[in-house]
Every structure is written in C-alpha cells, then in structure tokens.
Amino acid sequence: MGNKGPERALRHLEQVLTEELEPLARPNGRPSRPLERMRRFYRSAKRVAWDVSDLPWDTQPVVPRADSERWRLVWGSVIQQQLQADQTAVDAATRLLLQVPEPEARMYYSTMVQDEARHIEGWTRLASSLEPVDGFSPYFAELSEKFLECELLEESVLLFQVLFEGCALEAFREIAKTTEQTVLGAMANKLIVDDAIHHRSGVTYEEHLLSNASKAMKGHLSDVLRRYMPLYIENLTWRPPVRRWLNAGMAEHDRYVVKRNQLLMSRSVTELGLKAPFDL
C-alpha cells in the first residue's frame, strides 16, 4: 500500500466523521458544550438503531466463498474474534452506564449498551451459521482483563471509545469492502455507523472529563496508554490457526494496519491534550 497508506486512512476517517457526525457536534457551525453534544449523540443513536432480523439472511450468502470449507473457516474465525470483542464491549458499556453521573451521559450510554448487545446477537447468529471454529485471541483476552480492571472513568472512556472504537471503524470498513453482497458485509456497514457514534461520543465525553483534569491526571493517562500499547499491537497482528496460511501474503498489510492505527490513536490522544502513546 506504500507509505501514503496510513495518511490516506487518516484523511478517509476524518472525512467520514465530518460527513456523518460533525453536524451533531456543531449545529449551525457553532461549537457546543460536550454534554450538549452527548444529548445529540443520544438522539442520533436512537435514530439509527437497527434490528438483526433485518439483515439479508434469506437473500444473500452469510460470508464470501461460502462454498469453500477453507474460506468458511477463515470467515468463521473473523466472526469469532468480533464476537469476543463485543462481549467485552457490552461489559464495558454497561460499566460506563452505571458509572457516569450526568443525565446526558447516562442517556447516551443506555443506547450504547443496546448497540453492543445487538452486535453480540448478530455475531452469534452469524457464527451459528458456520462450522464451529476457535478464533478467540489470547492477547485480546488479556487486554480485556486489564481494561475491565480500570478504576478511573477517564481511563475507561479513553481506552474503550476514543482508541479501540476509533480503530474498529477502519477494521469494519475493510470487512465491508471484502464482503459485499453478504450478510457479514451488511452487518459491517451497520457497525461502521454505530462505532462512529461510539467513538465520537467517547471523544466528546473524554473532553468533558479532562476539562478540569490536573497535570498529574493527564500524565497518568499517558502512562496507562503506553503500558497497554505493546499488548494491543500483539493482538492486532495475531491470527488463529485457521488463518495462519495467510500470514506471508498479509505481512505488508499488517505493517500498514499497525502504522495506520498508531497514527489514528496518536491523533485522537494529542487532540485531547495527552501525550501520544507511540514514538512515530
């Protein structure tokens, strides 16, 4: 993809967020307070909510190359990894719903819990349509355990929504492009919209949380990010056994994805006034 790949990914992501979500954050071109924006994200999430039964189960194949056992196993492992991620996401969203003190934030997070539960429903139904396959990442399991141990609200929102949900947007765009005219592709397109709202609402709420944060708090958050990143990179490049035959052919793409996500994360973090988690 060349050296310009990560920069193109950044520009593309920024364009998506501007087109889909910026009107929510800045009505009539005027900046608004973070909690006012949370109310708008709440209304937006309610408006775009969807039902798993509306996906094209009866008219399109579940995954591409569904007639090939090898490719069914490949896509089955992808689905299992996404199911693993959303099992953590529904737990994380529920914790946030119970922690946030402001009514505007609590209303928004009630929609996020519903989104993540719907995602689990979709991944579970997709997985049940294919052969059982073990695609769960041991690195993500460790990452999830560490994440769910976070005690500070600022840490949880930063790691879960600002960083991981932000990078998930591009992952779902890649899945959507390679799974057109399938149930998986249709679901990936739904998740792009959901996760764009999750990410931007997280940036907005973190902005609110950090508005009066001390230098010590910001330094602590920067330290936390650096501790998480090596494990995150290990998870990002890990493949289960049924996909390891793809490793050689995907090596360049893996390097691109790591660089892209590092750039995306560093941009989000520095815009919040924190130190970038990577030395780029």
Largest sheet: none
H/E element sequence: HHHHHHHHH
Specify the CATH architecture: Orthogonal Bundle
Oligomer: single chain
The gyration radius over C-alpha positions equals: 18 Å
Write down the domain tally.
1
CATH superfamily: Ribonucleotide Reductase, subunit A
Strand runs, count: 0
- General shape: globular
Low-confidence stretches: 1-7, 16-30
Average pLDDT for all residues: 89
What helical percentage do the residues reach?
over 70%
Mind explaining what this structure looks like?
- By secondary structure, the protein is mostly helical.
- It has one domain (35-48, 61-271): Ribonucleotide Reductase, subunit A (Orthogonal Bundle), CATH 1.10.620.20.
- It is built from nine helices and no strands.
List the SSEs and their pairings.
Blueprint lengths: L4 H21 L8 H15 L20 H31 L3 H26 L9 H10 L5 H26 L4 H28 L4 H23 L13 H21 L9
Helix pairs in contact: 1-7, 1-9, 2-4, 2-7, 3-4, 3-5, 3-6, 4-7, 5-8, 6-7, 6-9
Quick gist of this model?
With 280 residues, the protein is an all-alpha fold. 72% of the residues lie in helices and 0% in strands.
Main features:
9 helices, mainly alpha, Ribonucleotide Reductase, subunit A, disordered N terminus, 280 residues, globular
